[in-house]
Amino acid sequence: MRAAILTGPRQWVIKEVALPPILPGQVRVRLEGCGLCASNIVPWQGPDWMNFPTEAGALGHEGWGVIDEVAPDVASINVGDRVAALFHNSFAEYDTGPADAVIALPHSFAGKPFPGEPLGCAMNILARSDIVPGSYVAILGIGFLGALLTCLATQSGARVIALSRREASLALAREMGAIEIIRCENALSAISRVRDLTGGRMCERVIEATGRQAPLDLAGELICEGGRLVIAGYHQDGLRQVDMQKWNWKGIDVINAHERARQTYVRGVRQAISASQAGILPTERLYTHCYPLSDINTAFRAAATHADGFVKALVLM
Q: Which one of 120, 243, 249, 277 is most buried, counting C-beta atoms within 10 A?
């Protein structure tokens, strides 16, 4: 099979490698594609903790495709079933993993991309946010995840305030249902605007979806007393500082909305499938850039630089 191997900072190489073996309890998926996650960018850039070369297909964790082979002890899924896969080496033509880490896709999804992991992630973050109808919800960072959460929170009855540095992202947030969009060029003006919108109370829920220090700082300012601050961004490029005195004084709940239990991920993906069938998730609107596996370097550059109109890149096999 062909697989992408990260040989050094910002440098993918496509190589022919052996098919991954199937261990007991596992299945092999012939991948149709794999989403490019924003969390892939920092490892691709080559931080000190990253080791090169990577395993074949490494970093790819948003794959979907067709079951190619199953271990003799697997009866839960069949060869030929189309699935979303929660595997970790899916920047390749094939990937293997536990049978309970694939989720069958309905026939109505035939021919359509379905990177289940990030869609399930959005559903899990929504659940952890515990949004109350009529409440103000600030979402900082309107990429793929922030756009999905804007849509989901709006449909949950919240009044969403979207904050981003990019005009295109704010326009997308408006399209997804945000009642107000704020360009974060100046934190003080953003805080003032939210204070005006909420009658001085600030927001009952704040979702930080950037993985960066400055928006995390701003999130602490936008949350109201007794509110819930939800950290959805993946912070992996260094330590973070928080204004603990402010967090203490406001008496807020702080939720790390990242899940690790496989069954929680699977549940989220199944909920995402149901939401997509119901027309609740505007996913195809958000898949803005598609690249063949051979052009994975271009895909990563587009994601890192936010190419024109960029929201989400898919790498297709």
A: 120
Token output for 58: 């490494």
pLDDT band at 277 (very low <50, low <70, confident <90, very high): very high
CA angle 273, 277, 279 (to 5 degrees): 115
Distance CA 188, CA 222 (A): 11
Q: With helix as H, strand as E and coil as C, how does 171-239 read?
A: HHHHHCCCCEEEECCCHHHHHHHHHHHCCCCCEEEEEECCCCHHHHHHHHHHEEEEEEEEECCCCCCCC
Q: Residue 181 — φ and ψ, nearest 5°?
A: -125, 140
- Residue 45: helix, strand or coil by DSSP? helix
Q: Please name which of 313, 308, 304 lies closest in space to residue 286, comparing C-alpha atoms.
A: 313
Annotation: CATH topology of 2-113+287-316: Quinone Oxidoreductase; Chain A, domain 1 (3.90.180)
pTM: 0.96
Give pLDDT, residue 100: 97
How far is Cα 264 from Cα 227, in angstroms, rounded to an integer? 24
Residue positions counted in the chain: 317
Which tokens hold the place of 75? 């009866």
Provide CB contacts within 8 A for 8, sequence distance 6+.
Answer: 46, 52, 53
Quick: pLDDT tens for 148-187: 999 999 999 999 999 999 999 999 999 999 999 999 989 9
Which is the CATH superfamily of the domain at 119-256?
Medium-chain alcohol dehydrogenases, catalytic domain (3.90.180.10)
Residue located via tokens 């960029």: 310
**8 Å CB contact between 214 and 235:** no
**What pLDDT was estimated at residue 7?**
98
